[in-house]
Amino acid sequence: MKLSVVTTLYQSALYLPEFHKRIVDAAADISSDFEVIYVNDGSPDDSLAISINIAQLDPRVVVVDLARNFGQHKAIMTGLKYARGELVFLIDSDLEEAPELISDFSACMTRIECDVVFGVQKRRKGAAFERMSGAAFYWFFKRVSGLDLPDNQVTARLMKRPYVRALIAHKDREIFLAGLWHITGFRQVPIVVHKASKGDTTYNFRRKLSILVNSITSFSTKPLIAIFYIGATISALSALYIVYLVGTWFLYSVPVTGYTSLIVSIWFLGGLTIFFLGVIGIYLSKIFAETKDRPYTVIRAIYRGTVRESV
Fold first, then answer.
1. Is the domain of 173 the same as that of 30?
2. pTM for the complete prediction?
3. Is 11 helix (H, G, I), strand (E, B) or coil?
4. What is the pLDDT of residue 295?
5. Confidence category of residue 223, pLDDT binned at 50, 70, 90
6. Residue 51 domain-assigned?
7. Where are the alpha helices (DSSP H) in the chain?
């Protein structure tokens, strides 16, 4: 098979009919031998029913129905595992990224010998908070992880089979796709795209914070190293202060008075200790999750045309 299109479904019912028409027309310009894979990530709306109906009318469609909502990144990795094309086009189904981008990406891949063509926004979409929080997320991640991720990259990307094969070989249970895209390597070429805004993002502040913690602990040990240096610094400063207090007592006979500084120090060091234990606990929890070796998604059924395949 020449081309596979992979997309995920979550609250996508409103956009799905138009998306399918546009992606089929765009894919047909690349090759007549293609498939479209929809991964239903436990969507609470009618996305599954609509996609099944599309599959019954279009034999090129495969619907992978996950048993529940596992998250977009895990759903994407599941879809990539079922893609059979020599080229794989990954895109969101909410029409914020134009399906017709596949033509631009294919032309770029033909013009420049590379393994991946991916989209980047010239300016992040959304309101001020979405733009600032997104920029802060990637700035902090790059500083802590040491990975030089492209700024403002989007989901849309056209990938060759060897790259996809290497990407899905990663066995992470907690997936941060932007990091995996980067560390997989190969030659990747960015192209500036426009991403529309269809309304409020489903990635609220709490979810973004969770992704930040997960991404940093997945790709960096710097927080653990920082704990050592901060602890060593506090110990050194405390030792110097003890020497100062003892010296003051013996040289000037000035006793240490007051409990305010003592209480503040106890609260400060207690909070710092709990924070450090929390950081260590996060790493331990990730080790625990990885060693259980559970599948990161569970598939309820696969629909090909009018056939429902149980898994």
1. yes
2. 0.75
3. coil
4. 77
5. confident
6. yes
7. 16-30, 47-57, 72-82, 101-111, 128-145, 161-167, 177-183, 205-219, 222-252, 260-292
Provide the residue range defining the domain that includes 284: 222-292
Assigned token pair, 10: 């979550």
Token reading at 157: 């990307």
As a whole number, the mean pLDDT across the chain is: 81
- Say if residues 144 and 216 touch (Cβ distance below 8 Å): yes
Angle of CA points 72, 29, 39, to nearest 5°: 20
Task: Give the model's confidence band at 264: pLDDT under 50 very low, under 70 low, under 90 confident, else very high.
Answer: low
Tokens of 254: 């000035």
Name which residue leads in pLDDT, 43 or 284.
43
Cα separation, 53 vs 62, whole angstroms: 11
Which residue's structure tokens are 């546009």?
22
Count of domains forming the chain: 2
Residue of 267 and 154 predicted with greater confidence:
154
Query: Is position 211 within any domain?
Result: no
Tokens 């990730």 belong to which residue?
A: 286
Q: How many angstroms separate the CA atoms of 8 and 47, rounded?
A: 10
CA dihedral 285, 286, 287, 291 (to 10 degrees): 100
**pLDDT bucket at 284, cuts 50 / 70 / 90:** confident
In single-letter form, the type of residue at position 308 comes to R
Show the CA angle centred on residue 169, arms to residues 27 and 211, nearest 5°: 85
Question: pLDDT confidence of 254, banded at 50, 70, 90?
Answer: low
Give the HSE-up count for residue 268: Cα atoms under 13 Å, Cβ half-sphere.
9
Identity of residue 211 = I
- What local confidence, expressed as pLDDT, does residue 261 receive? 61
